[in-house]
Design brief:
This is Probable peptidoglycan glycosyltransferase FtsW. The chain is mainly alpha-helical. It has helices at about 20-40, 40-45, 50-75, 75-80, 85-100, 120-140, 145-165, 170-185, 190-210, 215-225, 235-245, 260, 270-305, 310-330, 350-365; strands at about 110, 115-120. The chain has a two-stranded antiparallel ribbon. The chain is globular and about 60 Å long.
Amino acid sequence: MKKQPAPEPEMPFGPVDWWLLALLLLLLCVGLVAVLSASGPISQRTYGESYHFFHRQLQTMLLGGVFVALLCWLPRSFINKLHYWGIAVVVVLLLLCLLIGPVINGAQRWLDFHFMMVQPMEFARIALVMYLAYFMSSKQSMIREFSRGLLPPTLITMLICALLVLQPDLGGTIIMLAILFFMCLGGGTRGWYLAMVLVIAAVLVVALIIVEPYRWARWTAYLEPFANAKGSGYQIVQSLLALGSGGIFGVGLGGSIQKTVYLPEAHNDFIMSIVGEETGFVGITVVMVLFALFFYRCYRVALGQRNLRDRLSAYGLTLVIALSFLLNMAVILGNVPPKGIAMPFISYGGSSLLANMICAGLLLNYSRTMRE
C-alpha cells in the first residue's frame, strides 16, 4: 500500500503586512479626497448640500474598516468553510434583485435595505474566487479532466453569469468570466480547455453586445466616440476632455469644469477623469504608482503562501481588485466601451468599496502566513 505523504505543517500566524495596510490606507484617503471634490456639484443639485456623498463614503469606509479589522484576525479554518455558503448566498441575492430589486436606469442590480443600496455582484466576485480556490486546490488529481476538473466550476460561474445577464450587467458578466479563466490558469487547467473557455466567453460577450441596441451603440461609440460626441460617445469624449484639460499638473483640487454639468457619474465610474483634470499627469501617475505597489504586495502575499488553497485564494482576491482597476482605467481612456465598473477604493459606491475592503482584509489575513 502506497504511503500517504504527511500533511504540510500549518504556517504560524504572524503580523500583517504593514506595507500592504499602509498602501490600502493611502488609497482610501485618495479616494475620500477625490469623492469630496468630484461629488460636490451633483450633491448640491440633488440634496441641497455639497457633502452628502462624501459623508456616505466616509460612513461606508468606517464600516469597511471594521470588516478589515475582523477579517485580519479571523481564523483561517472558519474562512475555509464558507465557499459553498458564499455561492448560495450570492445566488439568492441575485435572484432577489430580479424579483424585488428596484429598477434603476433600466437595470435590476440592487437591493434596497433602506440604510444602504447593495449590489450583490460586487460580493459575488469574492464568493466565486473562494469557491474556485477550494475546488482547484482540493481537486488537483482531476483538474486536468474536462468532466470533473473544468465542468463543475464552469457551470457554477455560468449560473452567476446568467443571473447577471438578466439584470442586465454585461460588465459584471465579463469580470466573472475573466475570474474563471485566470483561476483556471493558476489552478493548472489544460491549455486546450482554457482556449475553449476563452472562445466561448468571447462568443457569448459578442452575442450579448449584438442583441442589445444600447450595447451596440456603446460599441460603436467606443470605435468612433467623436463621431457622435453629443450622443452615444458623450461619456468617453467628456472623459478624454477632462484628462486632456489637466495637462501636467492639473487645474487644482476643486477646479474641475467637467464635474459640474458635463461628465455623468463624475464621482463614480469616471472619478479618475476628474482626478486627472484636477491633479494632471502627475496626480494620475501618483495614483498608478500606489496601485502598482499595492498589487506588488498582494503578489508577494499570494506567492508566499505554502498552502495551495491559500495561494489561490490570495491570487483570486488580487484579481478581483486588479480587474476592476484595469477595466475602469480602460474605460476612462476610451480603450473599451463604458462598463459601469468602479475604481477600487477611489470611486463613490457602498457595495464596491465594501467588497474591495473585504478583499483587502482577507489579503491582510493571508499576509500573516506569508513566507519571506
